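Two proteins, back to back. First:
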Amino acid sequence: MAGRADELLALPAVEQRRLIGRRALSPVELLQACIARIEAVNPAVNAICATDFERALAAATAAEAAVMRGDALPLLHGLPLGVKDLLDTRGLLTTCGNVAMRGHIPDADHGLVARLRAAGAIVACKTNTPDLGAGANTRNLVWGATGNPFDPRLNAGGSSGGSAVALATGMLPLATGSDTGGSLRIPAAWCGVVGLRTSPGLVANRARALGWSGLPVLGPMARQVADAAFMLAACIGLDRQDPLSHAADPASVWPLPEVDVSRLRVGFSEDFGFAAVEPGIRRTLRARVAAIAPHVAVVEPVAIDMRDADFAFDVARAEAFLAGFADVDPASLGPNVRANLELARGISLADRARAQVVQTRIARDFARALQGFDLIVAPVLPMSPFPWTELYAEVVDGQRMANYYRWLALCYGVTLSTHPALSLPCGRDEAGMPFGLQLIGRLRGDAELLANAHALEQLLAADPATARAVPDLAPLCAPRPELKAIVTHPPVFEGLPVRGGFAAPV
C-alpha cells in the first residue's frame, strides 16, 4: 500500500485530477496518502501548522460520492490543498504566525479560499509563514521554524515557505502563496517548486488594506508549471470588493497552449544592474542561459534602469505595513514588521511621490525591454540557502545589507515593475541546493508567461543537470526521538521556540 501511496503523491496534480474523473483514484485515498506523508515528513521540516483532517476527510468522502454519481465535477475536484496561514479559513485556526492571533478561528473563508473550495479543492491544512508574512525566513513564535526539505537546518525561504516545503516533499499537490517582495518566488526557488507572482488584480484579494496597491498579490504554488496554470484557472475572477480585480477567462490560462521553443526571444540579467549577487549564483545563471541558448531564437543580455529601486520599494513596503498594522500593539509584532513601521513614520509625501515616479519608470522600462523579448530570465535569489537560525542575510557578495529584505532585491525590483514573474526549478546551484530561474513576462501576460515557462521546463527536464531537484525523503522520515523533547520543552534560539511537531501552536 505504501508503494501505491508514493506513486499517487508523485503524480502531477493534473494527472491526479484526471484519474479522479475517470474513477481510477478516490479523493479519499489521495487525501489519506497526503495525511500519511504529512505525519511521516512534517516533524522533520515543520511546514504544516494547523490541520483540518476530519473535515477534509468528510469533504473527500462527499467528493468521491459525486464522482460515483456521475455529477459534473469542478476543475480541482477532490484535490487536497494547503492554505498559507495568512489567509482566513472558516473554522480553521489562522494565526498569521503572530502571537496575538494564536487562537484566531475565522468564521468565513478568504475570497481565494472560497473560490478554491468552490472549484472542488479540499482544504487539508494551513502552511507556515513568518510573523504576518514579513521576511524570507519562515519562522515565528507561534509555530517555530520551517526547515528546507533538502537540509532542514537551512532556510526554506519565505514568506510562503510552508507551502513550498509541503509541495516539495509531496505532502500536498497544490498550495496557495502570496508575494510582495518575492514571497512566492523565493521559497519556490529554494525548495525546487514553482511559484507564480501574478499580475496585480488577476487573483482578487479584498483583504489588502491599500486596495490600489499593486505590491501584494496572491498566486498558485505547485511542483510543475502545468499544475500552477491548472490551479490559477480556478483562482481568477472578478471581485468587486477589490478595486484592482478584473474579469478573466479561466480558458486563457488552462489548458496551456503549445509553444515553439525555437522561436523564443530571451533576455537575461544577473543582477538588474543594482542587486548584490554571489559569484556562484552568477555562474549558475550563466550555465542555465548557456543551456537554453542553442534551443531558442535569441538570448541576449538586457539592461533595466533600476536607479532608486531600493528607495521606491522601501517607501511602498513601509506604506503598506503602516496601513495594515499601525493600530496593532507593537508588543505583538515581530522585529521585521516593527522595522517597516519605524521606517514608515519617517516618510514624507515628497518621498511617496518620488517613489511612485521611480516605480513608474521601472515599469515602463520593463515594458520597453519586453517589446524585444518574450521573457526575461534572472536568478530569484543572490545566494544559496543559509541556516534558518540567521533571520536574514546580512552580507551578500561582501556587501552589508541595509535591512532585513535588501538581499531580496532581485525579486522586489521585479515586484516594482508589476510584471508577472515565475520561479522555475532549474537544477541545483554550486552548493547542491535547488536553483530557481526567475522568468518575467509581459504586463498582464500571465498566460503567455506560463506557456513559455512550461516550454522551457520541458526543455530543461531532459538534462539531469537542469531538471527539477527532488529532495530525498528517507532522512526526513527517519525516527527522530529528540523531537519529543523539542515539542514538550521547546528550546529557545534568539527568542524563537523551535517546533518539531505540528498538532498545536507553541
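And the second protein:
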Amino acid sequence: MTDLAHPDRLRKLEAMRAEGVDPYPPRGVASQPIETVLAGAGTPEDPGPGIGQTVTIAGRLLGLRDFGKLIFAPVLDRTGRLQIGLQKTRLGDWWPRRKWLDAADLVGVTGELAFTQKGEPTIWVDEIQLLSKAVAPPPEKWHGLTDVEARYRRRYVDLWASEDVAEVFVKRSKALSTIRQYLDAEGYLEVETPTLHPIMGGAAARPFITHHNALDADFFLRIAPELYLKRLIVGGLERVFEVSRNFRNEGLSTRHNPEFTMLELYEAQADYRRMMEVTETIFERCAIALNGATEIQFRGATFDLKAPFPRKRYTDLFEEHAGCAFDDEVAVRAKAKEIGVGHLDSDYWKVMSDVFDETVEPHLSGPVFVTHYPVQISPLAKQDPDDPRLTERFEVFVSSMELGNAFTELNDPAEQQRRFEEQVASKDPETPGEVDLDYVQALEVGMPPTGGLGIGIDRLVMLLTGQDSIRDVLLFPAMRRVEETSSTEERQPTGA
C-alpha cells in the first residue's frame, strides 16, 4: 500500500476479510442509471411512476451523515447523484457492518424510492453491497482537489470529487461526435494513418525519436498525419479525415502539451475557401451541441461562433501592428530586436513569424480567419496566383489563440521538392532533416486540386467549455515525474 492508504480503512479491510466478506467482489450489480431513477421520481407535488418502486443503483458514496439509527449518504454515478437512507430497523442483521463503510467506497444498493419529509428523492435501502473498498480517503470536506498539480496527477479522484470536471470531458466527447456526424454527412471517410514515421514531416516542430529494433532504424512519433492523408487523396479516396494523436517535443504551457489531438481532413476539388466553410460549420455546430447557442464565454469575454467569420490578410495585419512590411528584412529584424525576439543569426522567416506572434496575435480577438501567409513559412500550401510571395492559407483565431490551419494544397511535385530542399537547408532546428521523396513521387502520380484543414481539438474544447488551460481538457496531461507526491492536501487523512 502507498502512504495514501489510511490506517483506519486498512483495519476495516482486515475486519471484513476476517468475517469472510470480500471487499473487492468479482461481480457487480444490475443497476439503473441514477438519472433514470430520478426521472421516474417526479416531484413531491406530482410523484412519478418510480415512487414506491424497488430500484437498484451503483456508485460512489460521497459522504456519510450518521444520526445513530439513521444514515444518509449521496451516491454518485456517471449520470448524477441520489441520496440513500440506511435505517437500523430496515437493515437488521447487516446494521453492525455499517461501520465498514467510508466516504469514497463504491456500493450497490437496492431499496424503495420515496421522498423524505424535506422533499428529497431517496432510496430507503433494503440491501447494500460493498463493490470496492476505498482505502485512500477523499479530499477533505468534499471541496475537491484544489491543488492544481494534485488535480492533474490524480484525475481519477478529480473526476468525481471536483465539481463540473467530468462534464468537461463529456462535452469533449460530444464535440468529437458532432464533428464525426457532420463529416460523415459530407461524404468524408474516417481513416487511420501511421503514428511511427520514417521521415519527420507534415509540420515544423521538434519530434520525439524512437528506435525500431527489428528494422534497426530510427522512427519519429507523428508530428502530423498530413502527408499520409494527402497520399490517400492521390489514391482516389477524395474526402478523408483523421482524429489523431500527435507528438511534439516542445515546452509545456496553457496552450501546449507534448501529446495532443488534431482533426485533419482533406477534400479533392476544394480550396482554402471551402475549408473556411468547413471550419465555420464545425465551430458553430459544436457550440450549439455543447452549449445550446453559438455565443460562448471564454476568459472573461463573449464570442459568437456563428458563421461567417471575418477575413483579414496576414500582410495587412503585419503592417498594422508591427509597423513594417513582412518582407522588409531590415525593418523586421529591427522590430524583432526592439521587442526581444529572434537572434541576429536566426533564419529570417522564423524571425518574421516570431514578430507576427508577438505583435499581431494579441489583437486577434476573433473569431477571425487570417489569410495569405508568406510562402517561406507555408511549405505545403499553394501560392496565391495574384501574389506569388503569398499562399492560399489561413489560420483561425479566437481570443488570440490559433485553433486551426488550412490551405489550398501544393500539388506541383517539382515545386514541392524545391520547398522541401529549401526547408531542410534552413537553419531552423524545427525543420525536417530529410526530403520526403516518397511524398514527392506520390505528387508525380497526380494529386487533384485539394483543400486541407487541421483543427486542434484540445484548444477547441478549451474554447467551448471555458477552460483556461489545455491541461483542463486533457484527462491525463504530461506532468513532471515525482517519486513521492508532496501535496499535503492529497495526504489529508479523513476517516469516514
